[in-house]
Specification:
The structure is a single chain. It is built from seven helices and 16 strands. By secondary structure, it is of the alpha+beta class. It has three domains: 31-97, Roll (Structural Genomics Hypothetical 15.5 Kd Protein In mrcA-pckA Intergenic Region, Chain A), CATH 3.10.290.10; 108-191, Pseudouridine synthase; 195-325, Pseudouridine synthase (2-Layer Sandwich), CATH 3.30.2350.10. The strands form three sheets. Strands 5, 6, 7, 8, 9, 10, 13, 14, 15 and 16 form a ten-stranded mixed beta sheet that branches. Strands 1-2-4-3 form a four-stranded mixed beta sheet. The protein has a two-stranded antiparallel ribbon with strand order 11-12. Strand 5 (118-121) and strand 6 form a beta hairpin. The relative contact order is 0.14.
Length: 336
């Protein structure tokens, strides 16, 4: 997801002209047919374990029922729970009715607090200033996220995420209100005509005021099942990735050198900014994945989706949140 990525829709029909979604990617919509292509990371897994890791939030009993009821197929063939998936297998998963999962209890107070954070809205979309610590959607052990809460509080069941940002990243999140707007905005993301700017606090003080980080990124899975990203120039599955950075301020925090950095991802890879900055020795403060030796005392990921430049719209911004701004020296001039 950068720390964000377009939210893809699964194809209604899989054929030779339509590629399935990589099984390394998170399923964003259980309510549609999903086609997942098995990668080397899931090779030789039992089918039931493969599904349990990808259909987070679904009761285990329902997953086994789906397999028995032929709602899951591998390479268009019936299968059993103990069957093992192989690399490049295509797993078809039938739509899962939302009612199948326990409907989350979303407090009115929480939902209204999100509604109050809408910084832009028109007939086709809204842009929300998401707080840190809130996932954009349910899954992976979470009952609900921003999109479920916004559907609940607005009564608009057809709201869709245009893209995603990490749970611990704060800032601008685009939500479509109409299918036509979703298609247009996602095409802008594919065409790279939407410019996204982030602000972050990073350890150390880069020598250059401006630079481009060009390093391919590879997604992988730890033995625990947790997904990570790393730089890997040798693996053919690694994806080309570039991030431009500008250093706006250099200062000391808890006797440690720190910088306020603006990051502009030119590609949209998961954890892109976080991994790129760690790669050049300037990991983001509060990053428990890529800055494990952080001594700053900061208790949140100091990464904020600050600005969006969308064709046909005025620039949309979200001010730096207090729990990041409070770490800056007095008189710090923030970018405009």
């Amino acid at each position: 997801m950068t720390d964000e990525a377009p939210a893809h829709e699964a194809p209604a029909i899989f054929n030779s002209k339509t590629r399935p979604q990589s099984a390394d990617d998170e399923i964003s919509n259980f309510g549609k047919v999903n086609y997942l292509e098995v990668t080397r990371h899931q090779h030789d897994q039992r089918l039931d374990n493969f599904l349990l890791n990808r259909l987070k939030g679904l009761p285990k009993s329902h997953i086994y029922k789906m397999i028995r009821s032929d709602e899951v197929r591998v390479n268009n063939k019936r299968c059993k729970a103990h069957d093992r998936v192989q690399r490049e297998d295509v797993v078809r998963i039938a739509p899962v009715e939302l009612a199948t999962r326990d409907k989350p209890i979303i407090s009115t107070e929480f939902a209204n607090s999100l509604l109050a954070r809408v910084v832009y809205e028109d007939e086709g979309m809204m842009v929300l200033n998401k707080p840190s610590g809130i996932a954009v959607h349910g899954g992976s052990g979470l009952d609900f996220g921003v999109i479920e809460a916004m559907r609940e509080v607005t009564g608009k069941k057809y709201l869709e995420l245009v893209h995603r940002i990490d749970k611990d990243t704060s800032g601008l999140l685009m939500i479509s209100k109409k299918r036509s707007a979703l298609k247009t905005l996602q095409q802008h993301l594919v065409d790279k005509t939407i410019q996204k700017h982030y602000l972050c606090l990073a350890k150390g003080q880069p020598v250059l005021n401006e630079q481009r980080i060009d390093a391919p990124l590879l997604r992988y899975t730890l033995a625990s099942g947790e997904r990570r990203v790393k730089i890997d120039a040798q693996d053919p599955q690694a994806k080309e990735s570039q991030t431009d950075i500008i250093v706006h301020n250099r200062f000391m925090l808890a006797d440690q050198p720190v910088s306020l950095i603006e990051a502009k991802p030119l590609t949209g890879r998961t954890h892109q900014i976080r991994v790129h900055l760690a790669h050049i020795g300037h990991a983001i403060l509060g990053d428990d994945k890529y800055n494990v030796h952080d001594k700053s005392g900061v208790h949140r990921l100091c990464l904020h989706a600050w600005r969006l430049d969308i064709p046909g719209y005025e620039t949309i911004t979200a001010p730096l949140p207090d729990d990041m701004a409070d770490w800056l020296p007095e008189q710090t001039k923030l970018p405009e």
